[in-house]
Fold each of these.
Amino acid sequence: MKVLIIIPAFPINLENIKGGVNSALSNLLKGFANANINVRVISFNREISEPLHKLYSPNIDIFYTPEGKMPHVLNFLFKGSKIIKKHIQEFNPSIVHYAMSGYILMTKVFGLFNKTDVVTIHGVPFREAKTKINLKEKLVYYSNGIVEMLVRPKNVIHISNYSHAQYSNSRTDHFTIIPNAIGSEYFNMKLKKGTSNKLIYVGTIEARKNLLFILQAIKALNDKSLFFSLSVLGGFTDETYKNEVIDFVNKNNLQKCITFFGWQGQVKLQEILMQSDILIVSSKQETLPMVIAEAMSAGKVVVSSSVGGIPEMIENDEDGFLFDNGSINNLMPILERLYNNDVLIEEIQLKARNKALETYYCNTVANKTLSFYESLKYSDL
């Protein structure tokens, strides 16, 4: 089987992946590298001026191509469609797989030659738009959602039941639910003995991710002489929110227990994760966060807001912990219970890894994806 995968802005240096869709595809390719399949990945990138070809594995090629200087939607519609058409003529894939939705789907308008196409839906644009404060960001998410409605393939991979429920009224020929893949390097991390009360936050720093809420909880715990440290890996996307966060840290003397690392490559991220005890997620909206799957695979305790598809990932008080979105009174007892609790930490981390191994391991996810491809190929005969 031949599969053409299309994605925007896939990093040339995979060490620079910052999570999200790029991380999901990178891990899926790790599974495909061990499967009976030929894959060609097409990535449209604004950071390059000349096309670039890289051999990922004996059965996987990645073609990087300059996106263009027009707005995304026009780049993909005119230049992107022409490039996709060329690759389809040359490669003759059985399946064309869009690794994400949004503007990138415009490349299918002139370019697919009636090939069977699939899209993986990672987010819910209209819901995510509501969490944005900046008007420009809101418009981007709403316009992505409109493009998705107009030209989305009829064959869909949802990463969670939550995602599927959001699209239950849309026209779909075939769908399946397959969570994002996680590479073996996370499962190979040594389980940490005991606890040093180290929290970790990973992701963009914006109002939707709600880092300020975590800082408020840490301040309240400090006031009760329960001292957690927090490593923050990620970058600010909004200057106003950045000022709010930094002001709160300074006014409440949290500088010694909060460390901002900025964006880090995969090696450094894994190193800091390995030293941590608890991933804390405080998002107001999520579909199925990669960082939770990664942390569980690494054998870390996850404490997360109960939003979107997250309750599908964690069974509360069994292989992780859930709290009501925005409720410090709901979060505090969980962290108080985990504080210096070596026995509970070690018990939960083992259960988390076992669940992740069944659900997110890259070879397992790759095989499920291949099975879906096969079902589409035969259904079209």
Note: The mean pLDDT is 92.
Amino acid sequence: MKILFTHSYFLQFDPKQVAHAQPYPPLGTILAAALLREKGYAVKLFDTMFCQNPEEILPILEEYKPDVLVLYDDGFNYLTKMCLSNMRDAAFVMQNLAKKHGCKVIVTSSDATDHYEKYLAKKADFVITGEAEYSLLELVNAISAKQSDFSSVNGIVFTSGNEIVKTPKRSLSKNLDELPLPAWDLVNFEPYKKIWLQKHGYYSVNIATTRGCPYKCNWCAKPMYGNTYNMRSPANVIEEIKLLNKTVEFSHIWFCDDIFGLKRSWVTEFSQLVKKESLTFKYKIQSRADLLVQEKYVEDLASSGCDDVWMGAESGSQKILDAMDKGTTVEEIRQARKLLKQQGIKASFFLQYGYPGETAHDINMTLRLVEENMPDDIGISVSYPLPGTGFYEKVKLELKEKTNWTDSDELALMFKNTYSSSYYKTLHRYTHSMFRKRRAEINWQSHSGFAIKVRALASYFRYSFSGYLQSLRLKRQSAK
């Protein structure tokens, strides 16, 4: 039986990410493909990342003639967790085309887990909810055996007659080392590499060392793994890095875990193995302030090649952090930033505006946190209610027809708050302008080269002017 794997993330549908130019292959998709191939199935990947439209799957359907289309979104990519409506619509198109070509259609994603009835209504035969590899294997085995009853396969949803059948939830995999390494040979690296080298001058690959997150931030959707947290062994991760070294030339890794290195001992062992194997690479992670302030934690990150930590700072207001159930303090954010700087690691802040109850005072505290601690980069969003979160339950009665963003830069506030959506969009631009103005000032002060100083001065005046205009807009919008 032939299985065609694909996913529903189309870079061209997300202009903000086109500008960022940091595409990564669909890691979760090729991991599931590796498992099915290991069990004897013929597998092929149709990677939608650089496609212009979902209809581009047609030649593959006609040439490969798969028995099953598996639309398997990469759960390790935070962009797929946002459940963007552009991507959902593309998934529906591919499902329809596959059905016209006689395929069974299986779908698994964060969005499909939350809204399985929508995917079934658009001709999906099965939706896998939660962690999907072993449910997919059992389901494909059942299809191959021409079974008519699928109720024994845990973790799936399907239609039987006029009813939707949802089987019991599948237990999560605890020993992640039992899974095969991802099928990296299915990936065409050239378009990824070309974009990275042209935009950034180096090539970065993605690896996941963990699954899940045990923390309980009440705005964070966790449809796949809930509040569980399971880790691969450091040795298993090193094995994948060595495999990738043989497959493609790279110098940087994005460890795409929700939380990298929750256990202090894991980080130490990983650092030791990197040295033992004489591996040389830089890497980026996502982490929390309270982890980073642990004794010698940041030192082990630095010694193993970490050069950038994206920290979920979220807000400079302790009141807002507590309302989010974040479990961190503003002081820990400050300490973590200081420790990272001492070890020569870039510190980048994720910031979130628009959480219910946020006032002008809270916003100013966030702006002050950025100005006083000057991260190396910032990423800004507004509070985004997703099903299954405490935050969603708080605001769901205020949600109208629109419950998802179209792309990752829409920044629509879909519930009633202190200020309007337009205010938060302006605040987003204002924060970036003030941040870039301050970075330009630092560059002016820290470099002696004439050309660098000229560019820094030009940036300083440019962002000073744009920030001034945006501050006027904020005053008008806050008065409405």
Note: The longest strand covers residues 306-314.
Amino acid sequence: MNNLRLHPLAVILALMLVAASGLSGQVSAQERLARALALEQNGQEEQAIAAIQGLLDSKSLEAFETGQAWDVLGLAYQNRRDFSSAQHAFEQSLRILENMPAHARAYGMALDNFGELLMALGQPEEAGRIQEKALHVFEKTNDHASVAIVCSNLAGLAFSQKQVRRGRKYLDRAQKEAQLASLDDDNLAAISSMRGWLGVMEGDAVGAVAAYQVALDLWRKRHGEQHPLTGWGYVLLGDAKAAAGELTSALADMRTGLAIIERTQGRQDERYLTAEIGYADVLERSGARAEAAQLKTEAERELQKLHRAQCDGCTISAAAFR
């Protein structure tokens, strides 16, 4: 869910553009890379991929910029659910950036991004090792914002494995680090949604509803009503309301979220199918058992097909775990 968060490359590239203002050719390549990053962040993956591939083919980038370009390319492919291509791009980025101690921040974020890919591939142990490695990189550079982001991701990883105490530890640190940094609404929403997840796991339905409402408000503020994250926010809020016994309101929120995700991502989207399964569970609790069973069976079947197609033949390089 964090793969649309603000990437520190946006800040790095902005600084590079200012520093290189006297070098017209270099500025041109950097500007093209910055525009490609903006395309990726705005959900325009196809355009971002074409732009970055053109830059890489032109060989007009310096080594550091090439490492950045591969990282952004990995993000774009991951958002498109092309996990095999995303893996290749992230590994290319890591090979370049790991040998550039002066650019530790970019290396750390490439590690974190690769860790999120591994999580999506169903490899939580490997994902944890990679994201812990990213955390150590950011700790050495005293980068509070990036530490907050990675700790939030590690909290989600722990919660997905039902390691509540471990997840709470990372989440508490993410919130403390966030107070020392300036985070955008996406990252603040991600931390709040983790607090909601913790509330659900600990049986604090009221606290979960409040946390998910904050996350939804932040996503709506940043992206508007018609955006996948906003739709997902409605689904999460509805699920928490169901845990609190507010079934009518829960179903309404989840229907709103499903409609937004369908309009923005389509029905053959992992987030849509996952949300549909959650909606079916709440629907069953409301008494509509036959409708819920059919909906859940179909969604689970489509989700399994999607997972099989997403990364046929993906193999993770051992070099990433050094």
Note: The chain is about 80% helix and 0% strand.
Amino acid sequence: MTDPAFIPFARPDIGQAEIDAVARVLRSGWMTTGPETRAFEQELAAFLTGGDTGAGELHAIAVNSATAGLHLALEAIGVGPGDQVIAPTLTFTATVEVARYLGADVALADVDPVTLNLDPARIEAAITARTKAILPVHYGGLACDMASIHAIAARHGLHVVEDAAHALPATCGGVKVGLLASSATVFSFYANKTMTTGEGGMVMTRDAALAGRMRIMRLHGISRDAFDRFQSRTPAWYYEIVAPGFKYNMTDIAAALGRVQLTRLPEFVQRRQQLARRYHAALADLPLILPADAPPGDVHAWHLYVIRLADDARVTRDEVIQALSDAGIGASVHYVPLHRQPYWRDRYGLKPEQFPMAEQAYQRMLSIPLFTTMSDAEQERIIAALRAVLR
């Protein structure tokens, strides 16, 4: 049994409304991709645009994971063998493994020492004649310097595909992530994200051609959705395979959960911001580097709260994690940089000294619990445990 006194690193916020929505789908007779999924796509697009589609329609493509979404997006923009994509080393492997699925190579770049986001200056140095796309990651829920990244992409004729797994509903320059001038943006609804469908993701794009390609490729390259074929009142059994696609569709069970979570997202981010502010105030006098907040006027999604030990800390990162564990508190590290992972290290001959900012951050960082069902008392326990080990 789970120890009720243990504070996990993350805990989903699921209520009766989500349970009722899933039960409704289970009783409906249709559980795979269908009306719930379409409604979820439409509602997320409306959430981002506020009902105003602006210069063009915003297309939402629901998928079974953000990894699937990134794969679909890269395939749709034409990434293939011989191409190269640029991404930060401080990310989860899913960001870049999808390029290898397509036979493309990866150029890893260092991060900004303050935000821990992809450093635009490092992008320029990594661009070659083979570069096809830039994959910025909005680390922890803080938007990247997208104005600089888009300017670089425009100068070199590159696509930008945003890994926004942490970033719903962050903003950048007053614009919601998902509405920026990128070829595609991919959100995650994994269990510990700012909202969840258990497993799942969504790709956002204003490019109708890219959206069409992704919709076909997410389900075996079939020209028609199963719901259209099986629910039509007239015979509609015929379909065509137009490409060797994938099995990346979202189920209606997951979409029903997501639709309820989306209605709660404003309260979720408000609670995350409140918890982050309390951490900021309570930890400010400790030998720590606290995470950067969003610039004035912008929104930090606060998926993660990542602290780093300062130079004058008298304990190591691992000692802090152990002390938290001894106090019944879960913690994690986001992430072991990709240049340290055997596959990426060995394939590209990478060394830690090539990534000084990410390397320094990695040696000192840990992620402490931040989730919407955390009670004030639980947060006080976490703060007290940190103060005890760091003072």
Note: Residues 197 and 254 are 5 Å apart (CA to CA).
